[in-house]
Write a structure and sequence with these properties.
The protein has 434 residues and is α/β, with parallel strands linked by helices. It has 16 helices and 12 strands. Bound molecules: flavin-adenine dinucleotide. Flavin-adenine dinucleotide binds next to helix 1, strand 4 and helix 14.
């Protein structure tokens, strides 16, 4: 299928939830907008976290209320209070956020590896583990990592609380964007973007033939690493993100009974955090870093009716390189054994069907490089004090080296871990530049 015009105000490359958020905002503002999605349906990767309430309201989305995250102990409240109101605004400067935060909080959560902070603040392994597991969700890192990526993970996890609207949101967003006049083409894999600061051409293939359209603005919902290739760069293995999640989907004849005696429907709906004591997390990290599938696989397990999904951490793509089927079988076995520790009956007795996806499988299905669910490492949700903030794209943290091409997905500065922020930021940068 081809587009209705040869030129658009905006072409969005990729119809993940962020691309759809951007398209909905821009079409509502009256811009001619085309979304090109490689797969047969829009929506991208699964989205379990709620969209910010303001996005739901702005786009008049009819979505059910969000599922709450498992509660964490009180942490860094002043930091969260300082950052939360800025998320739907241009980036604040680091020094302006810092000025609102207690110096001890800043030191412990922004400049000291999270592991050091957890060990000094909590004596209890389970409490430390609860926070560490939330911080590391979706990443392969240690809480002691000097890059502070776990600190950033924790901050985004805390920022994602208290927002609304969740499952099935991709369809609602697609309807919202299309209802406002955006064109959404599926089975349209973009192969090249050529442009300068004032505009760009986007080429895609629909399985039958090649098409090209021009655009004043191109918004990239694909990962920055993929965008570089679409812009004519090389596939650079050294900078390729590495995802860390094994996903196991189980169909069961019924939800298994729990060792705690809790009602399985309620407990699986809330989600179980398994294998995630602090020492267990570190052991799993050490195993995986040494190239071994961890024997206890930390994970989040949700279930409803006859389905259970296990999202395991510390299963980086590198584990599945040498022997993909063998390592996958080993990791699935480890996940099921870990889950069994919480059950009153073996999960294998309940399983009717099992499907597992490694980071490589996610990459294959969704073109997320390395299967990395955040499209790359998370960045702080503020601009460095000396950052250049001359253009709206820089002010919103969505810039690339080309003025006409912006990032609108998880790979934008604040796009990774709070749903919809990448799309919201890019759309506002486009609107501010007009
Ligand atoms: C295993 C796993 C677990 C997850 N768990 C959670 C969770 O618990 N909570 C949560 O909120 N989110 C979760 N997610 C979602 C994820 O974390 C991201 O935040 C989210 O998918 C990013 O959305 P996006 O719109 O930026 O990008 P994506 O969802 O990656 O969308 C990008 C889109 O671009 C398309 N595309 C790629 N290449 C091209 C091309 N060349 N041409 C055209 N289209 C292209 C893709 O098909 C895709 O539709 C999970 C994802 C995975 C894989």
């Amino acid at each position: 299928m081809t587009s209705s015009r040869n030129g658009y105000d905006v072409v969005v490359v990729g119809g993940g939830h962020n691309g759809l958020v951007a398209a909905a905002y821009l079409a509502r503002a009256g811009l001619t907008t085309l979304v090109l999605e490689r797969l047969a349906r829009p929506g991208g990767a699964e989205l379990a976290s709620p969209l910010p309430g303001a996005v739901v309201a702005d786009l008049e989305l009819d979505v059910p209320p969000g599922r709450a995250h498992a509660p964490l102990p009180d942490l860094a409240n002043d930091l969260v209070r300082a950052v939360a109101p800025t998320l739907l605004q241009p980036l604040p400067l680091e020094r302006d956020v810092r000025a609102q935060v207690d110096p001890d909080t800043w030191r412990d959560f922004v400049t000291t590896p999270l592991g050091v902070t957890l060990e000094s603040r909590y004596a209890d392994d389970a409490e430390r583990g609860l926070v560490a597991a939330a911080a590391l969700d979706g990443m392969f890192a240690s809480v002691h990592d000097e890059s502070l990526v776990a600190n950033r993970g924790l901050l985004y996890r805390l920022l994602a609380e208290g927002t609304g609207g969740t499952d099935g949101v991709a369809d609602v967003l697609a309807r919202s964007a299309a209802g406002a006049g955006a064109e959404i083409l599926t089975s349209a894999g973009v192969s090249a973007i050529r442009g300068d600061d004032d505009g760009a051409e986007v080429s895609w293939h629909d399985g039958m033939s090649q098409h090209t359209v021009s655009a004043r603005h191109v918004l990239s919902n694909v990962a920055p690493w993929v965008l570089q290739i679409l812009l004519g760069g090389d596939e650079d293995p050294a900078t390729k993100p590495e995802g860390a999640q094994l996903r196991v989907d189980l169909r069961v004849d019924r939800l298994p009974a729990l060792r705690s005696g809790a009602d399985p429907e309620a407990a699986f709906a809330d989600g179980l955090v398994v294998g995630s004591g602090y020492a267990e997390l570190q052991a799993a990290y050490d195993d995986a870093a040494a190239g071994r599938v961890p024997s206890v696989l930390p994970g989040r397990v949700r279930g409803r009716g006859d389905t259970i999904t296990y999202l395991a951490s510390h299963t980086p793509a590198r584990l599945f390189e040498a022997d993909p089927p063998g390592a996958k079988d080993l990791a699935v076995a480890s996940a099921l054994t870990t889950l069994d520790r919480y059950l009153a009956e073996p999960i294998r007795d309940r399983v009717v069907q099992l499907e597992a996806r490694t980071p490589q499988d996610v990459e294959h299905d969704l073109a997320m490089p390395g299967g990395h669910r955040f499209h790359g490492d998370l960045e702080w949700p503020w601009a460095p004090n000396r950052a250049r903030l001359d253009t709206p794209a820089q002010q919103w943290g969505v810039q690339t080296d080309l003025g006409s091409v912006l990032v609108c997905g998880a790979g934008s500065r604040r796009g990774g871990a709070v749903a919809g922020l990448g799309g919201h930021s890019a759309a506002h940068a486009v609107l501010a530049s007009r």
